Amino acid sequence: MANSNSVKSSAMYIGYLILKEIKEKNSEKVSIYDVSRILKKKGINSSRQLVLGLSFLYSVDIVEFEEANVWIKK
User: Fold this and answer.
1) Of 57, 69, 72, which is closest to residue 32 (Cα–Cα)?
2) How many CA atoms lie within 13 A of 33 on its CB side?
3) Which pTM was predicted?
4) Are 15 and 42 contacting, i.e. CB atoms less than 8 angstroms apart?
5) Phi first, then psi: what are they for 30, rounded to 5°?
6) So what's the architecture of 4-72 in CATH?
7) pLDDT tens per residue, the chain (74 residues)?
């Protein structure tokens, strides 16, 4: 059984938090800096986790990103 720390550091959980942030902003796109700030509030301080979460979402074709902006594909 996975412990709480390994789940919170998984790419899928980080991806979930990123998607949740984009939806809550109710905007077409969100700044990567906003995403980083939200992850820090959730106790995820590593930029590596941010990259893993974004990589996961990009690899499953859910998000696009350009420069410092991230958005959900339509």
Assistant:
1) 69
2) 2
3) 0.83
4) no
5) -135, 145
6) Orthogonal Bundle (1.10)
7) 456 667 778 999 999 998 988 888 888 889 999 999 999 998 888 889 999 999 999 999 999 988 899 988 88
